[in-house]
Amino acid sequence: MISIRDRRNGDVLLEVEGETLEGADLSGADLLCADLRRADLRRANLTLADLRGADLEEANLEGATFHLASYSVKTKWPAGFQPERYGARLVVEPPKTQPWWRFWKRA
Question: What is the CATH number of domain 1-91?
Answer without folding.
Answer: 2.160.20.80
